[in-house]
Design goal:
Layout (H helix, E strand, L loop, with lengths): L2 H15 L1 H13 L8 H12 L4 E4 L8 E6 L6 E7 L12 H16 L8 E7 L11 H7 L8 E3 L2 E3 L3 E5 L2 E10 L15 H15 L8 E8 L10 E10 L2 H22 L2 E5 L12 H13 L5 E5 L6 H5 L4 E2 L2 E3 L10 H6 L3 H23 L1 H10 L7
Parallel strand pairs: 3-4, 3-5, 5-13, 6-14, 7-12
Antiparallel strand pairs: 1-2, 2-4, 8-10, 8-11, 9-10
Helix pairs in contact: 1-4, 1-11, 2-4, 4-11, 6-7, 8-11, 11-12
Keywords: Hydrolase
Protein name: Peptidase M20 domain-containing protein 2
Family: Belongs to the peptidase M20A family.
Amino acid sequence: MSHIDEIKNKLDANINAIADQLIDASRELWLHPEIGHEEFFAHKMLTEMLEADGFIIENNPADMATAFIATKDTGKQGPTIALISEYDALPKLGHACGHNLFSVSAVGSALALSKMKDQLNGKIVVIGTPAEEGVVPKAGGKAYLVEAGYFDEVDAAMICHAEGRTIIKRNLIASASMDVKFKGKPAHAAGSPQEGINALTAGVLTINNINALRQHFLPRTIVNAILTEGGTSQNTIPDCCVMQVSIRAEKRDVHQSVIAQVKRCIEAAAYVTGCSFEIGSDRKIYEDLNLNDELAHLFADAIKSLGIEYIENENANYSWDIGNVSYVCPTIAPYIKIGPDNLIGHTDEFREASNSVGGYEGMIVGAKAMARVAVDLMLDSKKMENVKKSFKPSSIV
């Protein structure tokens, strides 16, 4: 058995030794779900766990009160390995995405590595990232941290996500949302309709314009629009129409092109009806996942060594703000099995699986696998070099 393998086995033992503590922490998060930028309970509990082990905590990075950076320096030259923790829940549904599990998984991995720091090189960093779910203002905590430069010195970043199957490389797509408001002119719909400017018509035309383009969309391009306001009385010409539009595409260049097309659909509808309009968004663009093959290979080896069956590669039309990180530093974002194969996210069933024996087993698997990959990178310079060579950076648009 090699020296590195011995360290990995000790790491497994370290995680087993604190498994009950990790499970208790995850269950507490599950019992206290918090939506994005309101994760004060989660922030306090996770940072206290890390601070008690000697991690240096930086609070309020990128002006986000529930974000944190926790650092443990081995004192020896080597790579900076980031273990990413996300801990927000969904409105009404609670932890129906399993963030209670893998936020703790990242912390558990860091605590296990910390106990071995005398035998490691470089830095262990836990980055706490709020508001992953794109359902709150200023969603996309990782994007804000990327823009503030918190990943610029990171050599490799890792995060896990809950699923019904273990998937090493999941090809995720880019996502953006638009808030659109058309402003028209009210008038009596029967007595003087000619005096009105119908904002609702502009909203309907926008949807029709988008539908007219669908045959030209590339595969995995998805545009979904809803009307959230379209008038207050059936006998009055609506002078205000409010829309929300979700725009997804496989790659960032395609995504930017589709965003431009949707804007033209809006402009055309406004021109025809005579409405004025505003386009805005209080949520960050989530970039597609820029997969790092070498990191994924190391993670697959770690999963295999733990005796876990996995799927190597799969396309999925989900979006995740880890994509923004993946264009700044080498990144992996595997999915870990926590329940039955047909488990569907954002459901009551997924929430219950996030507080189950299978869920906690998956959490421990994720912690062990990330720790094993961290050891490879911190002790084998060739593997770290290969990961960097595999990285294909590109500036965030």
